[in-house]
UniProtKB/TrEMBL annotation, chain A:
InterPro entries: Class_I_gatase-like, PRibForGlyAmidine_synth_PurQ. This is Phosphoribosylformylglycinamidine synthase subunit PurQ. The keyword Transmembrane does not apply. GO terms for molecular function: ATP binding; glutaminase activity; phosphoribosylformylglycinamidine synthase activity. The gene is purQ. It comes from Capsulimonas corticalis. CDD domains: GATase1_FGAR_AT (cd01740). GO terms for biological process: 'de novo' IMP biosynthetic process. It is found in: Cytoplasm.
TrEMBL record, chain B:
Its EC number is 6.3.5.3. Its main location: cytoplasm. One of its GO terms (molecular function) is ATP binding. It catalyses: N(2)-formyl-N(1)-(5-phospho-beta-D-ribosyl)glycinamide + L-glutamine + ATP + H2O = 2-formamido-N(1)-(5-O-phospho-beta-D-ribosyl)acetamidine + L-glutamate + ADP + phosphate + H(+). This is Phosphoribosylformylglycinamidine synthase subunit PurS. Part of the phosphoribosylformylglycinamidine synthase complex involved in the purines biosynthetic pathway. Catalyzes the ATP-dependent conversion of formylglycinamide ribonucleotide (FGAR) and glutamine to yield formylglycinamidine ribonucleotide (FGAM) and glutamate. The FGAM synthase complex is composed of three subunits. PurQ produces an ammonia molecule by converting glutamine to glutamate. PurL transfers the ammonia molecule to FGAR to form FGAM in an ATP-dependent manner. Part of the FGAM synthase complex composed of 1 PurL, 1 PurQ and 2 PurS subunits. It is found in: Cytoplasm. Keywords: ATP-binding, Cytoplasm, Ligase, Nucleotide-binding, Purine biosynthesis. Belongs to the PurS family. Pathway: Purine metabolism; IMP biosynthesis via de novo pathway; 5-amino-1-(5-phospho-D-ribosyl)imidazole from N(2)-formyl-N(1)-(5-phospho-D-ribosyl)glycinamide: step 1/2. One of its GO terms (biological process) is 'de novo' IMP biosynthetic process.
Length: 229, 79
């Protein structure tokens, strides 16, 4: 499976994603420049974390209008797989590829730490290698990671099982204390209606190598590989 | 040319955590009873003057300057 990792000015997790895909998963991967429209034959586009265009105006607001994103929108509409991490999640929301928006963390702090995520739907292209109800240990690093959406959207996400991960305690139980940023319904990651676009605030690419303290994030990439095999 | 002043604020339903922190700082400074502090963004533009300037600015606000999911906007055109 060939991956493409987008580089915006300000992306800073592009190399982490590249490393995980190439060296940990052993899959072909190429960087995609934000001003290009050529996806280089990639089967999955990774929109990495960072601060695209300095996060000026709003996180992801400027990146949405870069030439590569119009190509990604067409690609997603045709069923192509798109994974957005952290700033990438923000870019996907701004692009209307995913619903809702990310706002400032409730506590106003930039938070960088390991958190636990409960897998809520393990029957998707991005989660099929995760045991039902399992918790993954994956780090977050964000200042604006509070997921918000209106009531009808939240209801649609819940009813269609499009919330793929919620922030939870290590034992998988939900609590406000386990919610690092105040996200509605403890949401850490959501998918689009057709489950080929997935965005999450935590960084699975930073938790895919045991040397980094957790390899749980690898399960998300493994799921994608399994799904497309 | 016309000048346009755009103000973007978080929707009232959303907690404005920046505003909350500033509000408590004001209280600490002794300003009792300060309430409802909301922090927004202010954008100034100079645009070619035309009859449909309002429609044009509205489009800019909805497309880029604000995110309708989380923000409201207001603007004023000064000719």
């Amino acid at each position: 499976m060939k991956f493409g990792v987008i580089k915006f000015p300000g992306s800073n997790c592009d190399q982490d994603a590249y490393y995980t895909i190439k060296d940990v998963l052993g899959q072909p991967v190429e960087y995609l420049w934000h001003q290009d429209t050529d996806l280089k034959g990639a089967d999955c586009i990774v929109v990495p974390g960072g601060f695209s265009y300095g996060d000026y105006l709003r996180c992801g607001a400027i990146a949405r209008f870069s030439p590569i994103m119009s190509a990604v929108q067409d690609f997603a509409a045709n069923g192509g797989y798109v994974l957005g991490v952290c700033n990438g999640f923000q870019v996907l929301c701004e692009s209307h590829l995913l619903p809702g928006a990310l706002v400032r963390n409730d506590n106003q702090h930039f938070i960088c730490k390991q958190v636990y995520l409960r897998a809520e739907n393990t029957d998707t292209p991005f989660t099929n290698q995760i045991d039902n109800g399992a918790t993954l240990q994956i780090p977050i690093a964000h200042g604006e990671g509070k997921y918000v959406c209106d009531e009808p959207t939240l209801k649609a996400l819940q009813e269609n099982r499009r919330i793929l991960f919620r922030y939870a305690r290590p034992d998988g139980s939900l609590s406000d204390q386990a919610n690092p940023n105040g996200s509605v319904d403890n949401i850490a990651g959501v998918a689009n209606e057709t489950f080929n676009v997935f965005g999450l605030m935590p960084h699975p690419e930073r938790a895919a190598d045991p040397a980094l303290g957790s390899a749980d994030g690898r399960l998300i990439f493994d799921s994608l590989l399994r799904h497309t095999r | 040319m016309a000048r346009v002043k755009v103000t973007v604020t978080l929707k009232p339903a959303l907690l404005d955590s920046q505003g909350k922190v500033v509000q408590s700082a004001l209280t600490q400074l002794g300003y009792e009873g300060v309430d409802g502090v909301r922090i927004g963004k202010y954008v100034e533009l100079t645009v070619p003057d035309s009859e449909n300037i309002d429609a044009q600015v509205k489009e800019m606000c909805e497309k880029l300057l604000s995110n309708p999911v989380i923000e409201d906007y207001q603007f004023e055109v000064i000719r």
